[in-house]
Amino acid sequence: MNHNRKKTQANMLTFFSELNSQSVVSVEMAESDRLLYIRFENGMHLLVVLYGSAANVMLVQGKIVEEAFKNPDRYTGSDEPLPRPPSVLTVTPTGDIIRDILKVNPLLPRTFLKDLPLLKMAGSAGNYEIHALAQQLNDILLHRFEPGLNPDGNFNPWPGDILPETGKEVFESTNKAVRTAWYSRVKTERFNRKFSPILKLVTRANEKYKGRMNASENVEKSQARILQNEHYGHLLMANLHIHPDNPGTITVADLFSGGEVTIQLQPDLTMAENAAYYYEKARKGKKSARVAQENRGEIVQKAHMAEQLLKSLYVLAQQRDPETLEKWIDQNRDAFRILGLNEKEIDGKVFPFRRIQIGKYDIWIGKSAAGNDELLRASHKEDVWMHARGVSGSHLIIRMNRSTAYPDHAVLENAARVAAWLSKARTTGLAPVIYAKRKHVRKPKGAAPGLALVDREQVLLVEPAPPESGQES
After folding, report:
1. Cα gap 281→367, rounded to integer Å
2. Any long-range contacts for 236-242 (C-beta under 8 Å, 24+ apart)?
3. How many CB atoms within 10 Å of residue 394?
4. Residues 20-50: tens digit of each pLDDT
5. What is the pTM assigned to this prediction?
6. DSSP secondary structure of 193-260
7. Which residue has the higher pLDDT, 289 or 414?
8. Rounded to whole angstroms, how far apart are CA atoms 440 and 194?
9. How confident is the model at residue 189 (pLDDT cuts 50, 70, 90)?
10. Is residue 461 within 8 Å of 431, Cβ to Cβ?
């Protein structure tokens, strides 16, 4: 017995043996049918008929079927199936040239059509011109495809004579262009995550110190307001016996400069309290004016510093390089401290959600509509999500440390009370609060910030209550 004899494999058929060791030369798709052609170096090709009841794979020599995967008796020796001839579509122009062209050839990439000068010059193209443009664009993409990236990182498949773009980087293959674009996008997102909060902080500081500088320049106007407020206080004190007909104003004789003067009153206050109101305004005005005068040099210095930081940030915004941004942060830490900027926010170390503790559970609470969306992204699928039903408010997450169970009912109820308190249901006696596992909550594509859809929701009816003292972490 020959134990080395190769065993026959059961349940196996051999097809298309003529293609053994043959290399693929090209792969093509029929223009107007779902037929795929895989051509080999020996001149034969595989015809793949996609979809439908007649789906099949055939080996073709010339135009004759040599072998078929399905129904070989029917197809072997016959002519290969031909693709359907392209149908001629009559297009009624809509005035939107891109929309009209896509009716003729829906496979053209809409994203890459909008900036083409060729289409902008087309104007009111008729049916014939629309077909000609669609064919021209198709031919360009088939035979003159030029994968590249624009300076803004967007993909650009057009040769320079079709879409002139200064600074376009051309690649030898689409894969390389896409890979480079992906790395560029990741780098840009890294930059934006760090850059956006810094820009917000520096812009706020710039506006703050500019405002203070302008206030210190308006000392004369401030002095006039201070004197007027003191003047009104004196006049009201001199006329405490008068009961004005109109609770919002009073007209009295001006004991200091003659004539009459009309003074605005706070309707809910007495005459004496209104006098005190004007004296307090005068006192605060004097204090502000004194501080502005004393600190003017410091304010001007800080305003200039904030302005310079903002200008340098605009330069960084053009470069979009996270490493350069990190160096800029390190170089300007002294300026951040002088301007009173929060370095934890600059370094991205501020926790993005409000955090409390209920029992052994860590609770995360969104701070805004956008924060609610971020909360949804940051939470685990087994966490418990809560929100007051039918009103706007903060989303709340009970962190479950990957446990598939729910917390005790007392924990759920306490968390629901907080969720109701942090919503527009705060003033109601009882509020319904929905909850579900995070995996049953989703954000619809394109929905407004803070909007979420919930499946398998459960409801608790609770009295709204703020977090207890000691719960804040």
Report:
1. 35
2. 236/263, 236/271, 236/272, 236/274, 236/275, 236/278, 237/272, 237/275, 239/271, 240/271, 240/272, 240/275, 242/271
3. 24
4. 999 999 999 987 788 999 999 999 999 999 8
5. 0.46
6. HHHHHHHHHHHHHHHHHHHHHHHHHTHHHHHHHHHHHHHHHHHHHHTTT---SSTTEEEEE-TTTSSE
7. 414
8. 31
9. confident
10. yes
The pLDDT value given to residue 343: 80
Q: Would you mind telling me the total number of residues written for the chain in this entry? A: 473
Q: What are phi and psi of 370, to 5 degrees?
A: -65, -35
Amino acid at 459: V
Q: What is the DSSP letter of 59?
A: E
Angle at 441 between CA 435 and CA 446, to 5 degrees: 135
What is the per-residue pLDDT for 9?
A: 59
CA max distance for the chain: 136
Cα–Cα nearest to 81, from 47, 53, 131:
47
Q: How far apart are CA 360 and CA 355, in angstroms?
A: 13
The pLDDT tens digits of the residues spanning 138-149 come to: 999 999 999 999
Hey, what's the torsion of the CAs at 455, 456, 461, 462, to 10 degrees?
A: -70
Does residue 400 have a pLDDT over 90?
yes
H-type helices in 261-295, by residue range? 271-294
> Residue 56 has what DSSP assignment?
E
199-240 pLDDT tens trace: 989 999 999 888 877 766 666 667 788 888 998 989 889 888
Tokens 């400069």, residue? Answer: 257
Q: For the segment 320-368, what is each residue's pLDDT rounded down to a tens digit?
A: 899 999 999 999 999 999 998 888 777 777 677 899 999 999 999 998 8
- Domain borders along the chain are 97-170, 196-348, 354-462
The tokens of 399 are what?
């962190």
pLDDT in tens, 100-121: 889 888 889 888 998 899 888 8
Residue of 389, 394, 351 lying closest to 372 (CA atoms): 394
**In Å, how far from its chain's centre is CA 1?**
73
Left, alpha or beta for 116 (phi > 0: left; psi -120 to 50: alpha)? Answer: beta
User: Burial of 180 by CB count in 10 Å (0-12 exposed, 13-18 middle, 19+ buried)?
Assistant: middle
Q: Which has the closest alpha carbon to 266: 284, 239, 246? A: 246
Contact criterion met (CB below 8 Å) for 443 and 452: yes
The alpha carbon dihedral of 291, 294, 300, 303 has a sign of negative
Dist CA 92 CA 380 (whole Å): 52
